[in-house]
């Protein structure tokens, strides 16, 4: 019994909802019919609006993450056993400071062998020069001796570099964020050793859209807030604006933080860049709906003599919400058509509606 009553109530509700939707649609259709009826015979009913100049606020904020100004991942360039690790995670290091030492016995042997070969090549070159003066050897033999000496010298330089590379040295000032090795570990070329970061200078990485990036330029000063320090303002300077958008049609922007007292900001923290543009000059704008098809068409219908639609080419600028900046083609005080364009051609008679 209860189930039957519930079914009846649901059916009544559904019927009532359908009736309400049909009634509402009928009212909308009647309203549209009434608008069309206002137009005189042969005229197309349209809505219009005047072209205005407005000083639109261009202020905006963009969120991103703080990243270190410098970050280096050190990898081994030689094979060998780690004999000493001279720093720990969290240690502050200076540029040129030795971080770890890799056993260099085999590398030293290679260096001694290269030096011996160089000395032998130098003696051969001297003998060939002396023999050449008496006609004992040809010019070609002398040239080969000189080439052998140059090659031996190159091998000595290469061996010295490999021995030097066995001492892992920092190339930046920073903090050891990760240490991947321990004394006694055997490493190969490419083995990860350390990750160093310099947080004395940070950057905020953000993305902005096409209308926002048009207002930015390198060197602009920016207010920067950190989510964990809402009452502090970390000033910054725009140091990079991408010349090309990413896959989401946004433009990457980098802001270098002016100072980080006490290293309060950490890489990876969440931050917001606040862009303020004072005394914005008035610009010519029209509703986005005024464009035929889309903004990219750069065409609008202008009301001429009060009842004629004239198609006009314009140059659109920034898209600012539901308004579009007009760079060329329209003057303040002219009237554009914002609805009904689908029924218009150049020169169509229209009946503007309020």
From TrEMBL:
Residues of the CzcB-like barrel-sandwich hybrid domain: 77-198
Pfam families named in the record = Beta-barrel_RND_2, BSH_CzcB, YknX_C
Query: Which segments of the protein form a coiled coil according to its record?
Result: 111-169
Q: Which UniProt keywords apply?
A: Coiled coil
Superkingdom of this entry's organism?
Answer: Bacteria
Limits of the CusB-like beta-barrel domain? 204-275
Q: Where is the YknX-like C-terminal permuted SH3-like domain?
A: 285-351
User: Which InterPro entries does the record match to this protein?
Assistant: Beta-barrel_RND_2, BSH_CzcB-like, RND_pump_MFP, YknX-like_C
A single GO cellular-component term on record: efflux pump complex
A molecular function annotated in GO for this UniProt entry is: efflux transmembrane transporter activity
Tell me the protein family, please: Belongs to the membrane fusion protein (MFP) (TC 8.A.1) family.
UniProt name for this protein: RND transporter
Which species does this protein come from? Flavisolibacter tropicus
Q: What is the lineage of its organism?
A: Bacteria, Pseudomonadati, Bacteroidota, Chitinophagia, Chitinophagales
